[in-house]
Design brief:
The protein is α/β, with parallel strands linked by helices. It has helices at 47-54, 77-87, 103-114, 118-131, 147-159, 177-194, 205-208, and strands at residues 3-13, 19-30, 36-40, 62-67, 70-71, 88-92, 165-169, 197-201, 213-218, 221-224. α6 links the parallel β7 (165-169) and β8 (197-201).
Length: 228
């Protein structure tokens, strides 16, 4: 998987009608399957905005997002939705699990949406939950799981359709140190095993150093950061 960002710009209007320039020409290249990279920066610098552009949840004002040299902005809305479901995985700080469904059912959901059979979806979900150490918690609902366990369910769900690119927005920001370590180990192992590229936003500089590359978003631009 080859991810390339070319001169991405994004602005918003504030409550008084003033233009806020969030991204001012972001460039990035991730070229190797299984590559892991972190983006750090102060709150409000546009890290989540950038992840939303890459994940086709928003559109840039200028510039391009390319995966394997394909300009994703040229896809129709339906095609973009299919691309998100089949090629991208998302992990958020607040896991956003479906509270009325078991861990197994939560992880099965992306495969069912993609049109896979119930038996195939169940088999894949069971295998993933086993990989993240929750093989004995398949039928537990989110309210019956700890915060770290819920985040590991969210990781399994993000990997269900074998995404080529995993986008993680503060995936350990709501966890204690022990659970943070478990979740990070799970992420790195799953990326290495499945050759999935991961781009992670984090405020945690110590965590960022465990990834292969670290970039800093500052003044609307992205640059390789050697300070961590």
């Amino acid at each position: 998987m080859h991810l390339q960002l070319e001169n991405l710009h994004k602005s918003y209007l504030d409550g008084e009608g003033r233009t806020l320039h969030i991204l001012r020409g972001v460039d990035l290249r991730l070229e190797q399957p299984g590559q892991t990279a972190a983006i750090v920066g102060a709150s409000g610098t546009g890290k989540s905005t950038l992840l939303h552009l890459i994940g086709l949840l928003d559109q840039p004002d200028q510039g391009r997002v390319l995966l394997d040299d394909q300009d994703l902005s040229l896809l129709s809305q339906d095609a973009q939705a299919r691309y998100r479901n089949t090629q991208l995985g998302f992990i958020f700080q607040f896991h956003q699990l479906l509270q009325d469904f078991s861990a197994l059912e939560n992880v099965m959901m992306p495969a069912l949406v993609q049109g896979q059979s119930h038996s195939q979806s169940r088999k894949r979900a069971s295998e993933l939950l086993e990989q993240v150490g929750l093989g004995e918690r398949l039928l537990h609902k989110p309210s019956q799981l700890s915060g770290g366990e819920q985040q590991r369910v969210a990781i399994a769900r993000a990997l269900t359709n074998r995404p080529r690119l995993l986008l993680a927005d503060e995936p350990t920001g709501n966890l204690d140190q022990e659970n943070e370590s478990q979740v990070l180990d799970t992420l790195l192992r799953c990326c290495a095993d499945g050759q999935t590229t991961m781009l992670m936003i984090t405020h945690n500089l110590q965590l960022a150093t465990t990834l292969q590359q670290c970039y800093r978003l500052q003044d609307g631009r992205l640059q390789l950061d050697s300070s961590p």
